[in-house]
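Thread amino acids onto this structure.
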């Protein structure tokens, strides 16, 4: 997977931790752009995994920056990719980790909908996340 995408993602994570959500968004968008170009040529587990993680972080940063519509798009795309990854052959312990990542995105999507007054939609995503997490072993 691209070093540039990985560096941009780590940079975004650091900026997010500092509360610099607009700067974090820009870093995650750079990572997403690189990974979007890679996934066309190599739709492997590793590339899709990195893109899923980047989109998840991008959704968080967009939500924190008040960019609800953008956050919804990022979360929805990340959710679709996490579900795709669950169909790949993987180690049993990776399955739970993937389910946790999917549930985290569903929770983030629920928060965005709640903040925008779409409480029924928020409740639907919250319930789906709860159902996923409820079936997992405690960590």
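Threaded sequence (139 positions):
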């Amino acid at each position: 997977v691209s070093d540039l995408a990985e560096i941009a993602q780590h940079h975004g994570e650091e900026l997010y931790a500092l509360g610099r959500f607009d700067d974090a968004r820009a870093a995650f968008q750079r990572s997403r752009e690189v990974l979007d170009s890679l996934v066309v040529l190599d739709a492997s587990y590793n590339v899709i995994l990195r893109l899923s993680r980047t989109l998840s972080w991008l959704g968080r940063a967009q939500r924190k920056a008040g960019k609800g519509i953008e956050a919804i798009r990022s979360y929805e795309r990340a959710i679709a990719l996490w579900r795709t990854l669950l169909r790949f052959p993987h180690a049993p312990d990776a399955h739970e980790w993937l389910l946790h990542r999917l549930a985290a995105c569903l929770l983030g999507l629920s928060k965005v909908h709640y903040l925008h007054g779409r409480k029924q939609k928020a409740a639907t995503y919250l319930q789906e996340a709860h159902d996923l997490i409820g079936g997992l072993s405690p960590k």
